[in-house]
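Q: My labmate handed me this sequence with no annotations at all. I'd like to see what the chain might look like in three dimensions before we decide whether it's worth expressing. Could you predict it?
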Amino acid sequence: MKGTTLRTLRQWHHYIGVFLAPAILFFAFSGLIQVLGWQDQRNPPPAGWVSAIAGIHKHQMLPKPRPVEPARKPAGARPAGDDDHDHGGLAPLKIFALLVAIGLFTTTLIGLTIALGTRNLRRPALIALGLGIVVPVALLIV
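A: Here is what I predict for the chain of 142 residues:
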């Protein structure tokens, strides 16, 4: 490839990466929450921010308020949304998924640091970063 083509590709990679970085950070963090199963807690129920993040991660929208469950349930009844999957313990794949989420989050932060440290590309990178924050938030609340 020609040098100008590679330079152009690097610039596009730079701007697209900075634009997508906020979403990558969000989904890496919310994926970590999903792997740990914080959103599935029943007693006590998860914090509101955990439910909100899980709703955005799983359904790309803020969760709707859950109806209040009755105090007594018939014997042998399972909680809503309960399934046969084990949510406790750290299986090898769960550990790997946690490491992937942490690694993705960390390398994205490093990439942002490098991208914003490049003086001649800093202003367009800040614009791309701002758009990468504003666009998904606007799409979420529309």
